[in-house]
Design goal:
With 112 residues, the chain is an alpha+beta fold. Helices cover 25% and strands 33% of the residues. The longest helix is centred in the N-terminal third of the chain and has 20 residues.
Length: 112
């Protein structure tokens, strides 16, 4: 099995949602991730707090970042035999309910 990183991005501002809406969304995420976990393919993942800092060699910028319209919402690491399986497991992701995206990237193995 290979490991894949899923990066979740959305444009929608979730801070305007009611507690009930946030709870319903969290339930969708728990169910989706729980299904992957039941298959023994979930390695881990977490939502990310708003804000952050973007670094380059010469600059440090506090969020929000003017050049980005999408917000990095979270990440997940899962196991899959190949990209096709990783994409299939990603298709029911709740981020699509808010017109978000999932970037699927294979994690390279580092020689020790």
């Amino acid at each position: 099995m290979k490991e894949f990183l899923l990066v979740f991005r959305a444009i929608e501002d979730t801070s305007t949602r009611t507690p009930e809406q946030r709870g319903a969304t969290m339930e969708l995420w728990k169910n989706w991730m729980g299904g992957i976990a039941q298959q023994g393919k979930l390695v881990g993942g977490q939502p990310l707090m708003p804000g952050g800092r973007l670094m380059s060699k010469t600059e440090l910028t506090d969020a929000p970042f003017a050049e980005g319209k999408e917000v990095l919402n979270g990440y997940m690491i899962m196991k899959a035999k190949d990209y096709d399986e990783a994409v299939q497991l990603s298709k029911p992701c709740p981020i699509f309910e808010s017109n978000g995206t999932v970037e699927v990237r294979e994690i390279a193995k580092m020689d020790s």
